[in-house]
Amino acid sequence: MKVSPGDILEMKKPHPCGDKRFKVHRIGIEFRLECMGCGRIVIVPRIKIEKNIKKIISDPKEH
Ligand SMILES: [Zn+2]
Q1: What is the distance in angstroms between the CA of the first residue and the CA of the last residue of the chain?
Q2: Cα(4) to centroid(ligand 1), Å
Q3: What backbone torsions phi and psi does residue 36 show, to the nearest 5 degrees?
Q4: Ligand 1 centre and the CA of 61: distance in Å?
Q5: Is residue 3 part of a domain?
Q6: Domain count, the chain
Q7: Ligand 1 geometric centre to CA of 54 (Å)
Q8: What's the 44 CA to ligand 1 centre distance in angstroms?
Q9: How far is the CA of 19 from the centre of ligand 1 (A)?
Q10: What's the pLDDT score for residue 62?
Q11: Is residue 13 part of a domain?
């Protein structure tokens, strides 16, 4: 599963604000994601992200 910075991830488990879409800011052992609903930054280990991704919505500017 290939995730690039700028991509939007749709997750199986929503953020507490109710939005399931997160924008990728930085990738690595831990991913830095921005919730599209409330704008909060979350840092999540890659292994947790990979289990939780429902869909990758690529950034049209990057592809
Ligand atoms: Zn949120």
Answers
A1: 16
A2: 20
A3: -75, -15
A4: 24
A5: no
A6: 1
A7: 17
A8: 14
A9: 6
A10: 55
A11: yes
